[in-house]
Design goal:
- Helix content is 69%, strand content 0%.
- By secondary structure, the chain is mainly alpha-helical.
Length: 190
């Protein structure tokens, strides 16, 4: 095994999803993931604290993208317009070549309660990053948290549709469409 090879983190993620798909989450070991990626167990632990976290590797990047896009929104943007801009920034990172991988990732998570729980924490973290960014813009609560929750709901609903290989729409388009539908549904609550 080479001492250093590029893309170790990405290789570990792909190896983990492959093994989780082939043999299940519980039967997969950190050693197995590292071996499949052509790396060592030590390298795995340099990147991830445990095998569960390998599936949620992008959370910090996603949170940062969302917060930065909200901060960069024009001062005249409403909270939902700022959230929409944040979702545009996030969805731009999900290229069509990742669609099949996303579908497999969704299946792995859906098949394991521990992973479902971690996915909920990720969702809460992303909403929190957006809420904090909106508060920094001067948006009060509960408006900031409601706008963030609506945005994250739109993203996750759209992600589920996008990762279904029968739908060929871009994730950005699906997310905007879903956000508009949720906004319209909220208007009917009164």
């Amino acid at each position: 095994m080479a001492r250093w090879e590029p893309n170790a983190r990405e290789r570990l993620v792909r190896a983990a999803v492959d093994l989780f798909t082939e043999q299940g989450y519980d039967a997969t070991t950190v050693n197995g993931i590292a071996e499949r990626a052509g790396l060592t167990k030590t390298t795995f632990f340099r990147h991830f604290p445990d095998k569960r976290e390998v599936l949620f590797a992008g959370q910090e990047t996603h949170s940062r993208l969302l917060a930065e896009a909200i901060a960069a929104s024009p001062d005249s943007a409403t909270p939902l317009q700022a959230v929409a801009a944040a979702l545009d920034a996030l969805t731009a990172t999900f290229t069509d070549d990742r669609r099949e991988f996303a579908a497999r990732l969704r299946t792995v998570i859906a098949d394991n309660g521990e992973l479902q729980e971690r996915a909920v924490f990720k969702r809460i973290g992303l909403a929190g990053a957006m809420t904090d960014a909106l508060r920094k813009r001067g948006v009060p609560d509960p408006t900031a948290s409601l706008a963030a929750e609506l945005g994250i709901r739109a993203f996750h609903d759209a992600f589920d549709l996008w990762s279904d290989r029968t739908d060929q729409q871009a994730l950005a388009d699906l997310t905007r469409q879903t956000l508009d539908e949720l906004r319209a549904a909220m208007a009917t609550l009164d």
